[in-house]
Amino acid sequence: MRRFELSEWKRSPRLTDLRNTVVELLAEGRHRTALDETLRGLRRDPENPDGLFLALSVLAQSRTTRLSSPEPLTETQQWNALLAPITTACSACDSRWYSTHAVLFTDNDVQIHPTNPIGLQCQKCRYTLCRDCLKAQRPTSYTLSVDAPEAVAASCANSDCGGRGLSAPVLPTGRPDVTPMDPEAIEGVLVVRDGPIRPTTDDALAVVTRFLPLIPDDAPLLHIRRARPGTMSDASGRDGLAQSLLLDLEREGVLAPASWGRSRRMHILAGPGGDADYLIVPVQRSHLRVPPAAPHPASRPGTYTYLLQILPLRGGWATLRDPGTGDFHEGTFGALSAPAESLPGLAQDIIKRFERMGRSRRVMFFEGDRTQQSLSTDDVYGIVTEGSTSLSPYSEGP
């Protein structure tokens, strides 16, 4: 997720309702509730400058103040993905913190010369080193007294900066491990933990909110499952597991059909706590409504495999494949559960996701889940071309 630029920190002169609420809560020492209210505001508007400034103001409270608070902050709160734009990360070891320098630079141009900095930064590219990495680069002196002050200095490692020295202020760098998504566009999140024990809602929220811009209020979006040991050991196993579980949720009516094509897969390795590996699968909402069914009763949902094809400038219909692995391009191949009369609308949804290609597109359907089997044109159930509202028989032509 992108970093928050200094030019965007200029606070508006008027007091907002959110700011008034947070100030009152901080005066009462209710840090946890203050950050909860701030995160709710950021959930509605993730890049709101006032909300991000308030979040940093809460997080910038002194350690003594936070520890003595009747409502201390929780670990899950402090590393919520919504706070990624105001996070500072060390370029060497990836340790992270929230720098108060951004608060100091909001209203005034001030000079900072820290004697024991938590980190220093290149003022051109924001290459950043934390205190421990700065110490590791400093030569050890065997002649100076142990209590003698030592200068802290380092240079930027990026060649474009020409060895520029690191200094203060230390501003946000952002977090590359956060998946940027519009919270309102998330239809559901599949959460799978490796092992026989099903995670609790709190366990799942601690992982999901760290990497997706959601908050505990979004717990109803989570669909929590467990996995047999070994089923998440490689990418193909995780993809197969995710696809199977998403199909189950489609059959239950929890997710709209073709959820696999609207999903992303995130493999989260066990952290220092040694909990377990997680598979997080956020699913975006379908942007295209399925056309209303005919007046007669709708048929029962069936399972179908879909395959997107494009028509190049020369030659016949072709599939999109990864040049490195040879696998079908993500979102062009998968299985779904839906009534047969819904397939044309779902095909248009798949086609729309690749409209930037500027080529004619169509979707072929096969009966059943054929994702682990070879496909033959003899088995094509039907084809939906771009803009069509009905299934057509298989054809090689445009």
Sequence-ordered SSE layout with sheet pairings:
Elements: H1 17-27, H2 31-44, H3 49-59, H4 63-67, H5 75-78, E1 88-89, E2 96-97, H6 101-104, E3 119-121, E4 128-130, H7 131-137, E5 186-194, H8 201-211, E6 222-227, H9 235-251, E7 266-268, E8 278-284, E9 302-311, E10 318-319, E11 333-338, H10 343-352, E12 360-367, E13 380-385
Parallel strand pairs: 5-6
Antiparallel strand pairs: 1-2, 3-4, 5-8, 7-8, 9-10, 9-11, 9-12, 12-13
Helix pairs in contact: 1-2, 1-3, 2-3
Low-confidence stretches: 288-296
Summarize model confidence as the mean pLDDT. Answer: 82
> What is the CA-atom radius of gyration, in angstroms?
26 Å
What's the shape?
Answer: elongated
- Count of helical stretches: 10
Order of H and E elements: HHHHHEEHEEHEHEHEEEEEHEE
Number of strands: 13
The percent range for helix content is 10-25%
Computed structural class:
alpha+beta
Strand % is: 15-25%
For the sheet with most strands, the description reads: 5 strands, antiparallel
Specify the oligomeric state.
single chain
Distance between the termini: 41 Å
Account of the protein in words:
There is one protein chain. By secondary structure, the chain is an alpha+beta fold. The chain is built from ten helices and 13 strands. It has helices at 17-27, 31-44, 49-59, 63-67, 75-78, 101-104, 131-137, 201-211, 235-251, 343-352, and strands spanning 88-89, 96-97, 119-121, 128-130, 186-194, 222-227, 266-268, 278-284, 302-311, 318-319, 333-338, 360-367, 380-385. Strands 9, 10, 11, 12 and 13 form a five-stranded antiparallel sheet that branches. A four-stranded mixed sheet has the order 6-5-8-7, sandwiched between helices. A two-stranded antiparallel sheet has the order 1-2. The model is unreliable at 288-296 (pLDDT under 50).
